[in-house]
Fold this sequence. Notes:
The chain has helices at about 25, 30-45, 115, 150-155, 200-205, 300; strands at about 50-60, 65-75, 90-95, 100-110, 120, 125-130, 135, 140, 145-150, 160-165, 170-180, 190-195, 220-225, 230-245, 250-255, 270, 275-285, 290-295. It is mainly beta.
Amino acid sequence: xxxxxxxxxxxxxxxxxLIAVDARDAAIxxxxxxxxxxxARRQWKRRRGVVEIHWGLKRVGGRTTPRRALVVTVxxxxxxxxxxxxxPFPHExxxxxxxxxxxxxxxxxxxxxxxxxxxxxxxxxxRVRAHLRGTLSAVIVRGNTADVYLSGHVAGxxxxxxxxxxxxxxxxxxxxVAANRFRNNEEVDCAVVEGVALAVAKRLSxxxxxxxxxxxxxxxxxxxxxxxxxxxxxVHDINAPAQFGAGGLMIGLIRLEHRVSERGDSGAPAFDAxxxxxxFVVGASTHNRRSHTYLLTATRGLxx
Length: 304
């Protein structure tokens, strides 16, 4: 049986999902932040062992700080003496912009060992009910049981009860939320219920599928939202901010060209044309007077 993931951030209180930006970060123009992300991807994405580069909050000594950071997710962290000719990632990335140089914090995070060999089964339109109502995101098989993933803002705080149902299966109790990173000002809108009976989890999900991380080269590719729907759009941006209600800023999301999600779709899986899992619905928001659906990347969501 694969080892259980270590929920390093622990249980969260039911706080709003506002990114609490340190005063040093607030002075950095959005254009400089975008340039920093693009530079980081250009310099580091092809390095051996790098899985993804995204926005998050910097961790120091195992604790989350209010500082926004470029998070480099790697397959395995190596001590300096094992890096050989490879340079370690810097603590900050210097970005010249508008006649000034801004310094953006950098953090390195290791991909969960259980996640590397996980049996990922996307939800098949199954509905979930907890703090709010939404759609089941995915299931990961862990030996004789499974972990069930759902939207963080649907789940509520750690310890909340979660129920699920599907077209051919009546509502059943799944368990309690084990971890939720949609708390403490973090932007990963995903939660997990652990130890769900394998037979129940399989009835609520599709067959296993590959998870596809998106890159800048994927802008414009078609995306299908929902396991059973025919709602298609295209990738408009893969590192977009979005405002959800009063004070609900989230960053590092996939923005689709159109709004193709509805009320109750929070957490719904999204796929590319080949059926690979790319993300989960966060919600809809307006950008330049147009309404768009926003997705959390699957690689971030499943590494809760």
